[in-house]
Please model this.
Amino acid sequence: MKKVRGVYFRGGTAYIRYRDGSGNLVRESTEQRSVAFAEDLLAKRRTEVAQGLHFPTRTFDRVLFKDLLDDWWEKHGQHTRSRFNYHLPRIRESFDTKRARDIDVDAVDEFLIELEREELAASSVNKYRTILCSTFNFAIKRGRFDRNPVTAVPQRKEPPGRDRFLSTEEFQKLITQCKSDPALHAFVWIAATTGARKGEVLPRKWSDVTLDGSAPHIYVARSKNGRPKRLPLAAESIRALRALPSFEDDEYVFPADRGNVRCTGKQLHLWDIRKTFQAACDRAGIENLRIHDLRHTATTILFLSGIPEAIIRKLTGHRSREIERYEHLSPGLKNQTVDLIARTLSEKSTATDTPPSDDATSSLEVIGRDGGDDGARTRDLRRDRPAL
Model:
C-alpha cells in the first residue's frame, strides 16, 4: 500500500493528520478504510485551513466530560482489572456537569489536592489521576477531543513498598479475634498461608474449591499477572472453609449480603472485608496492619525458612523484581550461597584427581539443564570461555 504523507492507519481505520490555522497538529478519524477517501478529506481540510474556514476546536467546545467518561468506561475502563468502579463516583461528582473544555490543568490539580487533604494515600490519588488521563487520551485517539490537560499534572510520589508482616504472636492474637466471624476467619487463614491477594480469594465460587483428595486447593482462573494458579490449602484453612455458612448452601464461598444491593452493585460475592479486618486488629491490639500484609507475612516466612525463590514465586505469583524486597529479611540466605560456593571450590582444589561425588554430579547436571538464576546456561558460559 502506498504511504501518503498525512494519512495513517490505526486498527484498520484511516486517520488524517494536518496543521490547523494556529499551527497545532490535528488528528482526525475518517471512519473509513479507504486511502482514496482519506486523501480527499485531507486535501479538503488543508484547503479549509488555507481559506480560514476550518475551526476544528469549536466542535469540541460543546463536548461534556460526562460523555467522554461514559464512552471510556463502556469501551475500556470496565474491562480492566484495576477496579476503577470504586473511584468513578467521586470523579462524576466533581466533573460530570462540566464541559471537557472547562477541565484544565488547574482544575485537575485542585481536585487531586482536595483528595490529599482527605488523607488519601498517594497511590489512591494517582488512580483518580489515571482515570482522568485515560479518559482524555481515549477520546483523543478516537477524534472526540483534541487535548489532554492531565498530562501537565505530575503523579504523586508514592512511598516505597511496606515491609510490615505479622509475628507468630501477633497472628495468634489476630486469628483468635477472627473466630467470631466465620468469613473473616477463613479469609485470614487462606491469605496468611498462601500469600494470595484479596482479589484472588473473595470472588471464588465453591466450584473453584477442592477440599477432598490428596491436594486440596482453590483454583484461580486468572491472577493479577494474567496466569491461572492453584492455592494449596492447609488443614486449618480447610476446617475454616467447611465452617462457613455458605458451605454447600451458596454458589460463592464469600457471598455478599443479598439485601444490600446498593453497596455491592452487581457483585454477588463479598468484595471488601477491610472494616471487619480492622475491627479484629483493634481488638487484638495490632497496629499498622493491612490486609495485603498477610501476603507479606506468607512470603516472609517462606524466605526466612530458606525456601527457593522460584518455589515462592510459584505459590504467591510475585515477579522477580517484586520479591527482591524480601531478600534483606534473611542475611543468612546470602551467607548460605557463598558458603556453598566456597565448599565446592575447596573440594575441587583438594581432590582434583578423584571423580566427583554423586552430589556434585547431580549439582552439575541441574546447572547444565536449568541454568542459573540469571538464566545463564552452562553451554553459554562454555562458549564465552577463551580458548587455551
